[in-house]
Write a structure and sequence with these properties.
Layout: E1 3-7, E2 15-19, E3 24-27, H1 42-64, E4 68-80, E5 88-100, H2 104-118, H3 120-125, E6 130-139
Parallel strand pairs: 5-6
Antiparallel strand pairs: 1-2, 2-3, 4-5
Organism: Massilia cavernae
Protein name: OsmC family protein
Pfam families: OsmC
Length: 140
């Protein structure tokens, strides 16, 4: 896996990132840091990637178990250290999984498997942050 991040120039603190799969992503800094607030911050991108990683796992686990999953949202709320390096110190994941006849134990197992075994991003974050998660099931 490879990505390239390039600074957009001296007029601010925005960057463009290109993934090895050919996708472009913009990042920007906060105005107080010289940015223009035109794109997500790099640390927000870390949370976005982690949310994508774990949501992917949960849906895949449920689909492989032949569950009738129709939706999966995950909201991540993070706290960071006050001093440099301002690593994440706590990240809470809240899943809203929707489908037909989803069983509590099966969804709980999918969430736990993602966090304990499959989601590389959340497992890496757990090296510096306390990771917690909750979920709810919505019948559709």
């Amino acid at each position: 896996m490879e990505v390239k991040v390039s600074w957009n120039g001296p007029s601010g603190m925005s960057f463009r990132a290109e993934t090895g799969s050919g996708h472009m992503v913009a990042m920007d800094g906060a105005p107080e840091g010289g940015g223009h607030n035109l794109a997500p911050r790099p640390m927000e991108m870390v949370l976005l990637g982690t949310g994508g990683c774990t949501a992917y796992d949960v849906v895949l686990i449920l689909k492989r178990g032949r569950e009738q999953v129709e939706g999966c949202d995950v909201t991540l709320k993070a706290e960071r250290a006050d001093t440099d390096p301002k690593v994440f110190t706590h990240v809470h994941f809240h899943f809203v999984v929707s489908g037909k006849n989803l069983r509590h134990a099966v969804v709980e197992r999918a969430v736990n498997l993602s966090h304990d075994k499959y989601c590389s991003a959340s497992i890496m974050l757990a090296k510096t942050a306390q990771i917690t998660h909750t979920f709810e099931i919505v019948e559709v």
